[in-house]
Amino acid sequence: MSELIHYRLEEGLALIGLDRVPVNALDQSLRAGLSNACERAAADPRVQAIIIHGARGLFSAGSDIGEFGTGASFAEPDLPRTLVRLAGIHKPLIAALGKVALGGGLELALACGYRIGEPNLRVGLSEINLGLLPGAGGTQRLPRLIGAESALNLILSGKQIDAENARLLGILDRVSTSPERLLDEAREYAYELIACRAPAQPAEAWPEPADGLPDDFLVRYRAEHEPSWKSRLAPRLVLSAVEAACLLPLDEGLLKELALFKQAESSRQSKALRHVFFAEREAARIPGVRDDLPLRSITRVAVIGAGTMGGGIAMCFANAGIPVALLERDGKALDRGLTMIRDNYESSVRRGRLLPDQVESRMDLIFGTLDYADLSDADLVIEAVFEKLEVKQQVFLTLEKVCKPGAILATNTSSLDVDAIAATVARPHDVVGLHFFSPANAMRLLEVVRGKATAPDVLATTLDIARRIGKLPVISGVCFGFIGNRMLEPYAREAHRLVLEGATPAQVDRVLTDLDLNMGVFSMLDLAGIDVNFLVRDSNRTASAHDESYCRLGDELYAMGRYGQKTGRGFYLYEGRNRRDDAEVIALAERLADELQISRRPIDDQEILERCLFMLINEGIQLLDEGIALRTGDIDLVWINGYGFPAHLGGPMHYAEQLGLGTVLAGLQRYRNALGKYGEMWFKPAPLLERLVAAGRKRIERF
User: Fold this and answer.
1) Are 86 and 283 in contact (CB under 8 A)?
2) 8 A C-beta contact, residue 598 and residue 648
3) Which pick of 380, 435, 598, 637 has the fewest CB atoms within 10 Å?
4) Cα R_g (the chain), whole angstroms
5) CA proximity to 432, closest of 395, 403, 407
6) Is 107 an active-site residue?
7) 98-108 mean pLDDT
8) Does residue 361 sit in helix, strand or coil?
9) What is the band of 620 on the pLDDT scale with cuts at 50, 70, 90?
10) For residue 30, how far is the Cα from the chain centroid?
């Protein structure tokens, strides 16, 4: 028997334990071991029922994602045919589900006739998050178990549900009294099934998965949900597979599902999403920092500044059960900040995301103060004050006096020099940048900015605490704007310039959202605040002193007090959240173009797309070459999670590789030649891009 399988015979029961650390990924070797064990149990006349379980408690987190898109994905025994064979065994199969049964792991459980789970179990079919659909029976067996509508909602959400909800839906037959009792109660369940001569596979709960639904249910479901799917392929394939479950016998439905799965697996979208999955794993690795490096203890946190950003940061820690002191300069500002936090929590109650007592428990963890002395016991202090270097440096001078030795001192700056801030204190090794994205309590991304003196254990500790509060941390080096905002500058520059040349804000935004970006440049700036963008840009005037023409439009709107959604006027006009075009902005662009002697002309969508994205990509490649970004995957994660770049395109760096690096370089050179002095000034290809194309490289990598 395979070392990945624990097999033992107990009084008429075959217990088959999966033992592929860490999560029983169903790769070819584990599938082979499982298949052999089940065949052995099926052929043994002493075996009356079979229990499949996780030998170390955890059942299975699903297929080995590294096999997707390779020959190993369907190497014999492949999962679909293995599960068909298991479902055909003439003895009852009981799946004893510990901790998680996800993706292929849940499909394995669905192929068994009976299922019992521990109370802390989480189940789900998460393939949609990889641009896939369940390909080993999930779209066929689940609708026959819980009905087509419930199955669709679960598969398309990719979410995990707990044991009790799984039982109520009909996925689980039973929930054990405790994790420790799971296997014992699975044995008892097996003996009950043997005693009552239960069939190997019980009758389907929903032999007609669409029973009770309107005849046009699937058509209406598609019409209702397609707008939110945008250009994503996988949701449409899921719907087709579930439709097959409603119309075809199981064996034909399984064949249809498999064909649809292979279509998804071979798609560029799934390849991109798998790239994102592995990029998240890789982002946790810091070159030169040992995995076993002792971390600093973080049990108490302080945040300086109770504005929108500071309050959101405080909520992040309170949500994770970590006490946090919130400091402000005056009582009115502190009261406003605490009121804003409570209002945010109350809004979550109204949306059904929190219970009232949870609001109180989280508010109890936030301690408002006006006195720096109250920060003396904090293990981590995060400064979130006005984005001006001198102001932040003054805060750090005060922190130097009041914070205990070993406390981590973090700045939430979005663009300023972390090394210049660290230089104000005698312990620059304790200083790190923690750039939260707004709204901080909702946005998943956290740029962790490594200063030249930042200690390795400070870096490792901040990555750990970021994950504890549910953030995705990405390491950046020190430069203006770090990874995200440094790349935003040329991206937004082209958008502004295109409007001066003849495009409209609405046209530019439409081109970008047609690519499935969450927002266009101008709607994003209106949401974030034109004033905020102006102040960030103003702090970096030296970088663009030789040509500020491109940002004149934003400067004029700032001077007019048109700050975006918050003032009801920005690049667009707003009535609540409803946006409409503003002829005044077009007239302003025409006037500025005349002053700057910029010729206006009709601009086609392809030029907008290329100029914005090629400059975004070019800056990312330059960041990699400078060592500001450690990996292309890190850049992609920043832009997917911080700026709404579509994950199913893999982020701007992966997207560039799919376009072809030669295509990007040729486009930059074309606009460099076509746009006169402006093109010569800004459309300079990154040297790394030129080297990659000259060397015939297909991947973006430093060399």
Assistant:
1) no
2) no
3) 598
4) 28
5) 407
6) yes
7) 98
8) helix
9) very high
10) 29
CB-neighbour burial class of residue 66 (10 A; exposed 0-12, middle 13-18, buried 19+): middle
Which of 109, 120, 121, 126 has its CA nearest to residue 51? 109
The 10s digit of each residue's pLDDT in 426-465 is: 999 999 999 999 899 999 999 999 999 999 999 999 999 9
In the chain, the amino acid numbered 71 is G
Which of 67, 118, 127, 243 is catalytic? The answer is: 127
Q: Which of 3, 11, 76, 107 is catalytic?
A: 107
Task: Specify whether the CB–CB gap between 378 and 401 falls below 8 A.
Answer: no
Distance CA 36, CA 163 (A): 29
Q: In a 10 Å sphere around its CB, with 0-12 CB exposed, 13-18 middle and 19+ buried, how is residue 334 labelled?
A: middle
Handedness of CA 565, 567, 570, 576 (dihedral sign): positive
The verdict on domain 5-265 having CATH code 3.90.226.10 is: yes
Report the distance separating Cα 432 and Cα 475, nearest Å: 11
* Domain span(s) for CATH 3.90.226.10 in the chain: 5-265
What are the backbone angles phi and psi of residue 245, rounded to the nearest 5°? -65, -30
CATH 3.40.50.720 range(s) for the chain read 301-476
What's the rounded mean pLDDT across residues 7-22?
97
**Per-residue model confidence (pLDDT) at position 548:** 64
DSSP string, 274-328: HHHHHHHHHHT--TT--TTPPPPP---EEEE--SHHHHHHHHHHHHTT--EEEE-
Name the CATH architecture for the domain at 301-476: 3-Layer(aba) Sandwich (3.40)
Q: Which residues contact 153 (CB under 8 A, 6 or more apart)?
A: none
Where residue 663 falls (left for φ over 0; alpha for ψ -120 to 50; beta otherwise) is alpha
Residue pointed to by tokens 């520059």: 493
DSSP assignment string, 66-77: GGTTSGGGGPSS
Map tokens 């930059």 to a residue. Answer: 668
82: left (phi over 0), alpha (psi -120 to 50) or beta: alpha
Contact call for residues 450 and 432 (beta carbons, < 8 A): yes
Q: Counting Cβ atoms within 10 Å, is residue 566 exposed (0-12), middle (13-18) or buried (19+)?
A: middle
What pLDDT, in 10s, does the model give residues 397-433? 999 999 999 999 999 999 999 999 999 999 999 999 9
Helices of type H across 403-455: 418-422
Q: Where does CATH 1.10.1040.50 sit in the chain? A: 484-627+660-694
pLDDT (tens digit per residue) in 560-585: 999 999 999 999 999 987 899 999 99
439: cis peptide before it, omega within 30°? yes
According to CATH, what is the number of the domain 484-627+660-694?
A: 1.10.1040.50
Token pair in block for residue 25:
């990924």
- CA atoms of 432 and 485, how far apart (whole Å): 17
